[in-house]
Description:
The chain is mostly helical and 250 residues long. The chain contains eleven helices and no strands.
Amino acid sequence: MTLLAVERMKLFTTRSPWWCLAVALALTVGFGTLFAATAPESLTVNVGATQVGGQLGMMVVMVLAALAVTTEYRFGTIKATFQAVPNRNAVMLAKSTVVAALAFVIGELSAFAAWGVCYLIAGNEVLALDAGHEWRNVAGLGLVYAGAALYALAVGMLVRQSAGAISLVLVWALLVESLVQLIPRVGDDIYDWMPFAAANRFLQDGGPATPMTAQMPEPPIGPWASLVYFLAVGIVLLVVGMVTVRKRDA
Length: 250
């Protein structure tokens, strides 16, 4: 039995993945549906608007990813795993691959479900997936969820405590990056290079210019470069976490 199969079995023998899938779907689809159903006639519901609940779904995925690591430390099962497989890097790489793949699937299911329900409600041609940026708005959510899972896995490896790891990833993604913009003179420049800001830029940039977006400064890098940057930072953090796991006692 391969390490990937073992990690998949360990993950899916708990209820967490199923609950997280259900909650992520409910939040993403629910908020998208609510927006489409209550939007005034003067406001056109576009493809990007169908994903208004995507960030909330991402928080659920990050909680799942953090727990995938910290729960093993909490109950001591990680010791048995390392005794069976002394190569700790291989264990953590397999765990990260399984969790990131699950996060990708949750993101794709949530995004397309939200878009599909909104399309049925709004029933306008604006929601058709015709342009590249529209496909990125929807299909790109799975990539962002997978990247976010890497961040949470890395924090879980570094902290090894569920409450602390979950608090760190949620506070950073929801609060810290936004507060950076309040720093005088350099806040906006720093914010442009915050990882989750880059992920949002990947999902939202590239659409038709509006009076509001026309007044906004040009981002330092394009949508796809923003995704590469977001994933690269996550991979670096994951490597740091794996090195820490290898050097510390289980």
